[in-house]
Every structure is written in C-alpha cells, then in structure tokens.
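Hi support team,

I'm opening this ticket because the web form for multi-chain structure prediction keeps timing out on my end. I have pasted the exact lines I submitted so you can reproduce it. The total is 316 residues across two entries, so I didn't expect it to be a heavy job. Is there a limit I'm missing, or should I split the entries? Thanks in advance, R.K.
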Amino acid sequence: MAVNTELQGSSYPLAQPFEVTREAIAQFARATGANSRSHFDPESAAQFGYSDVVAPPTFAVIPAQRTEALYITRPDAGIDFARVVHGSEQFTYTRPIVAGDVLAATCHVDGIREAGGHAMITTRTELTTADGDEPVATVVSTIVVRGEDA
Amino acid sequence: MSDQPTGVPREEYRPSPSDIAPKLADLQVGRTVVTASIPLSRADLVRYAGASGDYNHIHWNERFAREVGLENVITHGMLTMGSVISRIAEWAVDPGAIVDYRTRFTSPVVVPDAESGAPDTPTTSLEMTASVGAVDTEAGIARLDVEVTSGGTKVLGRTQVKVRLS
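Hello R.K., no limit was hit. The queue was backed up. Here is the completed structure from your submission:
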C-alpha cells in the first residue's frame, strides 16, 4: 500500500494531556546516561530555578511519539511500520519540561514527499501547557518509509 | 567515567549554579569542548525501550531485525541522540540550558547480544566530539557541532546543539 499523500496538512491532538512525573523523568534520565542530580532531586533542580526535577533534553520524544502514532497508525495513512526508518529529529524548547507539567500535544503532518519509491514524512508536534496558552517545545521528526523494492 | 560498564549506572553528580558553567566569552569557535566514548549493550536498549515506551521489535529481537533486512538489533536512534546530549548537558551544567537540538540518523548502530558473560556487557560504543560552531553573545547562545561515530562509521549527521549560556 502506498503512503497516502492526501493526509499532508492533517493534525492529531492527543486525547488526554500528558502528565510528566518525577518517576518518568528519573527513568528516562537513567536510560540515557543523564546523571545530573537535577533530574532526580527537586532540591538540586530548585537551585537552577526549576519548580521540580527537570527533564533531559530529549524527554519530549515520549509525548511526541505518542502523538505521532495517532497519525502513523491510522489505517488509511498507508504506512507499513516494518518499513519505517527514522530520518531526523529536532527539539526546540521554549522552556525545559519539569515534573508536574501537564502537556497538551498536537501532531501536524507538514510534509509527505515521495522520491525513488520511498516516502519521506515530516511531522511537527507542538507541546503546550494543557490550557494551550503557553508553548513548551516543538518536536520535528522525519521518517522514511522504504519502498517495496528497496 | 566513559569506560564504566553501562549496566552499572554512572554515579549521579550534583551540579549547582555555583559550578563553573562555560562562559560564552571564553568559547572559541572550532575548539573541542566535549569528547566521550559511550558504551552500549543490549541491556541499554531494553532500558531505553522501557523508559521511552518505544518497543519496536528491531530494538530487541534479533530474528525480527534480520527478517526486515537489518544485520542485527539496532539502537533506537533516540537512544543515540539522548546519550549524546547527556554528555553535552553535563558540560553545560544546567540540563535546561539546551534550547535546540537537531540531528539526522545516517547509519544504524548495531548492538549484538554479548556472546558470553553478563547480558549487559557492552558490545559497541558511540564516539562523540562536540566543538564550538558559533557564539552569539547578543542572544546568549552557543552552537555546538557534534560528530558521532560507531565503529568508524558516522551514525549521526548535521548534529547541532544550541546552549543558552551567560
């Protein structure tokens, strides 16, 4: 099945806001070798002016990938996940994520480009406070869906 | 620190604002500021799967990885990306000082199971070097350009980190 280019421009809001916990931050920090006490100890984080433990810089990938999945797993998106390769990733932070944050997330399908039998898809997930008033981070991801002959 | 097995978490450290964070005025374009060798084991991939919720089979099941044309199980690109930024965040002292981080995944990092010994024995490693690419004193931002290889092959491309410094 070919990738459905008609979904370019479509958007996918996460149904429930993503709640950031101290446990999730500590677990992610350990898994990525992020050893600053500010990921584990609220007092250490407070010394930097944070209201609670601060998330490592790529932590936003958790809510972002959960939101991207709303698009990628859509049956009519035409994406065979076994053929998906991660092409690139970019995080841009308005402010760091901290424990206690409740984040709304919306994934926008910015581009679907077909070339040489492959499809390259660019998604942009905007993370904001749950009320939508304050931007927190933007995660831009490209995936490549390898063609049948590749 | 870098030669410590990954199965044993490295010791937490306690940075504080009084630590010597790099000063923008001291940074010289072209100067290397971070080098590290980051060992990886199959256990690290399992740990990252659990922490991130990314349970894609190619990151833990060798049979499946081969069936889809890979040489063996490969790391999550995001584990590579996350491990690299951890070393840069240590240099920056405040992990929240990283305001922008981008990369391209140019080659998969294959992580075979350890043939003997403990299952969390590292079987590959990432070699990283970060150097100062640009300094914007007006904006208070330094850009680092990062090279990341594994087994001599470039695995991340056009990797840039923007760090807010005073």
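A quick check on our side: Helices of chain B lie at 42-52, 62-67, 77-92. Let us know if the file doesn't open in your viewer.
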